[in-house]
Design brief:
Length: about 210
């Protein structure tokens, strides 16, 4: 995990210490990261787990480049978090969001979910985001993504982008979990995408 100092601000020390302690218990590697030192990004080829602190997502989410957001996993802490903020963060490619007063249980759930390639947002925010995308026509990018996959893989892709787990996808499509995993791995290879979060982001940008 890498702590990203976004727009010259760091996650407040109490929360940073709490996240560091919890991530250590979860055996997730942690390190502090200066957002201006991009040499770290180039030197470390391992997938990254970045913790962001955004005081005003509607103002600052856009300042984080797409290159950073398509590399690794991204969890955001915000002083105030509502459905509108969450929806904005989803659309910008983040993988989860928490308030500064999040409980230890919530932090554990968020870290574990995002680390396991699952999005961590409220159901209301996910529903609003999905509904907003359903009202938009397919674009060339969606067509390109879908053209790389088979019909079975497309059905799995759609459910992945809706935030369903492997077990939920298997039940929905009446196939085994191993078959779901195989389809997802094939989708990753064909699209050159390495995580569910990145896949959802790429499909959302379509």
């Amino acid at each position: 995990m890498i702590f990203s100092d976004v727009i010259f601000k760091q996650l407040p020390e109490p929360q940073a210490l709490q996240v560091s302690k919890i991530s250590g218990l979860l055996n997730i590697e942690t390190a502090f990261y200066d957002s201006l030192n991009f040499a770290c990004k180039a030197a470390d080829k391992r997938p990254k787990f970045l913790i962001h602190y955004l005081e005003a997502p509607h103002k600052h989410a856009y300042l984080i480049s797409a290159d950073i957001l398509t590399t690794g996993k991204h969890l955001v802490f915000c002083p105030n978090l509502n459905i509108e903020c969450e929806t904005l963060l989803i659309s910008n490619g983040f993988h989860g969001a928490l308030t500064l007063n999040a409980s230890e249980v919530e932090i554990i759930e968020a870290l574990k979910s995002v680390n396991n390639n699952k999005l961590y947002f409220s159901n209301d925010a996910m529903s609003r985001y999905i509904q907003s995308k359903k009202r938009q026509p397919n674009t060339q990018r969606q067509i390109e993504l879908l053209s790389l996959t088979t019909k079975k893989e497309q059905r799995v892709l759609t459910l992945v982008c809706q935030g369903l787990t492997n077990d939920e996808i298997a039940a929905n499509l009446e196939i085994s979990v191993n078959t779901v995993k195989m389809h997802i791995q094939n989708i990753f290879k064909k699209t050159k995408i390495s995580s569910r979060g990145q896949l959802s982001y790429a499909f959302a940008q379509a």
